[in-house]
Structure formats: C-alpha cells, structure tokens
Amino acid sequence: MNKLILTTAAFALTAGMSFADTVRMGTEGAYEPYNYINDDGELDGFEKHLGDELCKRAGLTCEWVINDWDTIIPNLVSGNYDTIIAGMSITDERDEVIDFTDPYTQPDPSAYMALSADVNLDGAVIAAQTNTIQSGFVAASGGTLVEFATADETVAAVRSGEADAVLADRNYLLPIADADAGLVLLAQQEMIGGGVGMGIRESDGELRAKFNTAIQSMKADGSLNALIAEWGVGEKF
C-alpha cells in the first residue's frame, strides 16, 4: 500500500534486536488485498503469506502484530515490533527515519473512485487515508483534501457524499468498484511513490540483509511473481 508518514524524528532506538528472539512483523490488517482480517478473524492477505515465506527462507521465527496505520512508523522505531510489512511505499522522506528492504512489489498507480464517471476532479473534494502518499499528493497539488484514519472511511465518505472522490492504490480500489455498481474508477491515475518494501529500524542492518536475501531468492525462483499474480497486487518483476 502506498503510504506516507510525515515525521517521527522524536523517536530513537538505542540498540538492534537479537536474532535469538522472535521477529515481530508489524502490519495494519485493514488494507485488502495486502493485509486484512478474514472472516475467521485471522490475519490474511498477500503480505501475510509473503512475510511467512520470507521468515522461513531467512531462518527466522516470526509473529505478527497489528497496529493502526497512523502510528505504524513511530511504533517500529520505539521497538514495539521489528518490521513493517503493510503496503508501505519506499519514499525519501520515510527513508530519513527508517530503512527499507528491497521492494517486493512494483510501483502501483493511484486511482480515483467516485459515484459517477462524470466527476470533475478540478476543485473536487478528495478523500485519502491520513499519512499516505495519496493525501500528500492531494495537499501538494492544492486540492481540497479530507483525511480519514482508515481506508474504509475514505470509501464511506464517497458513498455518503462527504467527498467527491477517493484517491488510493488502484489495486485496493479495483475490487471495491467491481463489487459495487454504484462506484466507478475514473480514467485519471497518478503515479506517486516507489515500490513497496519492508520497513526496518536503521539499527537493524543485519535483519534488513536477511530479508533482502529472502526477497531476492523469491524473485529468482518465480515464487514472488506467483504471489503477486495470486493476490492481484501489481505488475510482476
């Protein structure tokens, strides 16, 4: 998921983790198909399956931690978990606060979804999830932005008429539009942000290297592309 955290400069971690301990994988659990809670109340999605396989290949014992999006970087830096694997785009601004692994998805276009294909985006009220690259894009463009804590709330704002359109990852919006005849994806798209990678504390270079090796092995044997195709999260490598 293409996301943007504005600042976490006040947080610092004084020591890296010990690889004898369990690696805690932080995710949002609210951004299908990347990560979400399924009907059985369990974490599911592309990143859950990817993360489990990466931990296996890296020889690590891992457990999952659910965290709200708006505090996901501060809680990584402060040590509440050891990685972020939550549809987070690699950006220069985030890279000033944390490190990233190699990307495990290609850059994903952002799309607009509205109640009608005739919506004029010039002067429109655009909903976006707070602290995302989409909210940053709308704000920087001078558009009228309304922000919400969760992606679901941005879609609800369009349905209720509070916003004229929502801007989010196309791969997030596409199944929603397919399932609801009252919502349409607009033709205009925006290319913002880079590929998606795992967030790692700057002090945990060894952990970053382990996951990079695992990511590269999945790229090499085609298993990463198979997962990308299975979950419909973007272009293959």
Number of discrete domains = 2
Known CATH architecture of the largest domain: 3-Layer(aba) Sandwich
Just give the CATH class of the largest domain: Alpha Beta
Flag low-confidence runs.
3-20
Helix tally?
8
CATH topology name of the largest domain: D-Maltodextrin-Binding Protein, domain 2
Measured on Cα atoms, how large is the radius of gyration?
18 Å
Q: How does this model look, in words?
A:
This protein is an alpha/beta fold. It folds into two domains: 23-106 and 194-231, D-Maltodextrin-Binding Protein, domain 2; 110-190, 3-Layer(aba) Sandwich (D-Maltodextrin-Binding Protein, domain 2). The chain has helices spanning 46-58, 72-77, 92-95, 133-140, 151-160, 170-179, 205-221, 223-231; strands at 23-27, 30-31, 35-37, 43-44, 62-66, 83-84, 99-100, 110-114, 125-129, 144-148, 165-169, 184-190, 199-200. The strands form three sheets. Strands 5-1-6-13-7 form a five-stranded mixed sheet. A hairpin with a 3-residue loop joins strand 2 and strand 3 (35-37). The two termini are 17 Å apart. Mean pLDDT is 91; it is low at 3-20.
Topology:
Elements: E1 23-27, E2 30-31, E3 35-37, E4 43-44, H1 46-58, E5 62-66, H2 72-77, E6 83-84, H3 92-95, E7 99-100, E8 110-114, E9 125-129, H4 133-140, E10 144-148, H5 151-160, E11 165-169, H6 170-179, E12 184-190, E13 199-200, H7 205-221, H8 223-231
Parallel strand pairs: 1-5, 1-6, 9-10, 9-11
Antiparallel strand pairs: 2-3, 3-4, 6-13, 7-13, 8-11, 8-12
Defining traits:
D-Maltodextrin-Binding Protein, domain 2; 13 strands; five-stranded mixed sheet; globular; disordered N terminus; alpha/beta; 2 domains; 237 residues; 21% strand
